[in-house]
Amino acid sequence: MTDSPRSGGSRTDFRPETRIVHAGHDPRDHHGAVNPPVYHASTITFPTVADLKRSYARRFDDVYYGRYGTPTTQALDAAVAELEGGRWCVSVGSGMAAVSVVLMALLKAGDHLLMVDSVYWPTRHFCDTLLAGMGVRTTYYDPLIGAGIADLIEPETRLVFTESPGSLTFETQDVRAIAEAAHAAGALVALDNTWATPILFRPFDNGVDLSIQAATKYIVGHSDAMLGTVTMTDRALFERVKLVAGQVGHAVGADEAYLGLRGLRTLSARLRQQGPAGLEVARWLQGRPEVARVLHPGLPDDPGHGLWRRDFAGVCGLFGVLLTPGPTAEAVAAMLDGMRLFRMGFSWGGYESLILDTTRSITRTATPWTHDGPSLRLHVGLEDPADLIADLEAGFARLTGADG
């Protein structure tokens, strides 16, 4: 929960599917309206000098200036914080903004960062360029390292960054073991929790200090808004992140915040369809001769399946596919160019199914990437799985026909 007066009170006795409908607002605050109003506001006025000073003193919690939030963004922050099991949340303009704000708020020149090797590529690029220019050293580590992370922690290590499952290759991390080792050495732990959303993985129950969401994905859920969030349980961390977000000029538009709230209300319902549908498609792909391996922690033969069963409440619709070596780039293009339902796009989490050629996108520096064949990333949307499977089947026919 947040301290926002618009949080609607604690609902920890309700299950997540119930809380997701009611978190972050109270209709009694808005003349009985079910949804919080959309406040388009930059300037906030005050009747007296004393009121202005009082609001400035409470600028981390109050409506003070549009860059620091409005009642609409406060409602979103309160809802996400409650659902992730946190206490405070800071919303920003994208998932990458959420990542960069966390890194800038917690690290300074001379500090050391441990970054998972399977991280979202723009995060890696940020570390290798802007963060390096600030004098912060980054060491990439094997996503499967678990408690062995202790051997990489240095006196200057301030933060261990996790992402589970990992981008493109979907390794499941032992976040709990990593957090125990990091905290024993005095380091904080951040998690990019976008794959699991606020309801499939409980970050703070597993030792995470800051949970990041690219809310553009499943929270918005309709591919029509850019949004990111950072959730915390520690007040001092919240103020550090909130301050930096304001200092670098992050401000969430009222319409984007509203779209995030709108999408959040149906998140559990969408996941209940997209998660099982994704597993159905993944199982079908396992039986295809063109497929070497399906990268999905929900599959029993996945190396991370045990950790997934221990720590997660379900699956989303995003996973990877390794094709058997042999097809040319032209054959892969023939497969993808003719898809009728799977569209090509760099985002995911919406209601539509997506497919992306990731063959040249997987970057590793701590551990080698040894697969020689093409690779794909699939996001299963709300379409009927049978139709998606038929689309893929026709695509495989084009793949093999192009090389035949």
TrEMBL record:
InterPro entries: Cys/Met-Metab_PyrdxlP-dep_enz, Cys_b_lyase_bac, Cys_met_metab_PP, PyrdxlP-dep_Trfase, PyrdxlP-dep_Trfase_major, PyrdxlP-dep_Trfase_small
Keyword entries, A-Z: Lyase, Pyridoxal phosphate
Pathway: Amino-acid biosynthesis; L-methionine biosynthesis via de novo pathway; L-homocysteine from L-cystathionine: step 1/1
A Pfam family reported for this protein in Swiss-Prot or TrEMBL: Cys_Met_Meta_PP
UniProt-annotated stretches for the region Disordered: 1-34
GO biological process, one term: L-cysteine catabolic process to pyruvate
Compositional bias (Basic and acidic residues): 12-32
Catalytic activity: L,L-cystathionine + H2O = L-homocysteine + pyruvate + NH4(+); an S-substituted L-cysteine + H2O = a thiol + pyruvate + NH4(+)
Keyword Lyase tagged: yes
Post-translational modification N6-(pyridoxal phosphate)lysine, affected residues: K217
Enzyme Commission code: 4.4.1.8
Known cofactor(s): pyridoxal 5'-phosphate
Annotated GO MF terms: cysteine-S-conjugate beta-lyase activity; pyridoxal phosphate binding
Range of residues in the leader sequence: none
Biased composition (Polar residues): 1-10
PANTHER family documented for this protein: CYSTATHIONINE BETA-LYASE-RELATED
Family: Belongs to the trans-sulfuration enzymes family.
Protein name (Swiss-Prot/TrEMBL): Cystathionine beta-lyase
Species this chain originates from: Roseospira goensis
